Task: structure prediction
Amino acid sequence: QLRSRGRVIPWMTPGDWGMYLNDQFTWALMECFANGATGVYFWSHNYWDIEHLMGFARALKIVHPVQDVIAEGKPLSGVGGANGVRVRGMVHGDETFFIVADYRLEAEKTVRLTVPVTSPVPSEVVDLATGLSVGQIDDERNILTVTLTPNQRLRAFHVRPIQKSN
Result:
């Protein structure tokens, strides 16, 4: 469970469909976090296996830098997507966490998103899987281009004010 007041913890189960693969489990957890979950109850009639543990570890590694945004934030509004792409996220103060996903993707897809600016100063957009800055946004320039592939159907981003070095 992330640091929080414990306000949103959904229940997730694979039901009769069978076990989640690690990518699918990561995606499911990321969807929960992008909708404000501060933890997830998970039940399976089988057991936790390496697939689950890998997916669980990947999701926690991705959201670690934005756990306060998720736990203390409110749902993101005003971000636009197209072509069947899901965009979900949380905003807290000058920071935003959001995911971009297309789970049925069969070929590479590039989408342009209008990202709402919540900071009075320019912000950088960080890819949470790599930790690398992938762009900057401000009041006049708030379009982000995101490429999804069959091997990378979900991408997670952190928008934060640009840190000035002294």
Summary: The chain is about 20% helix and 30% strand. Strands lie at 11-12, 41-42, 74-75, 86-92, 95-101, 109-114, 123-127, 132-137, 143-148, 154-161. The helical segments are 22-34, 50-63, 67-72.
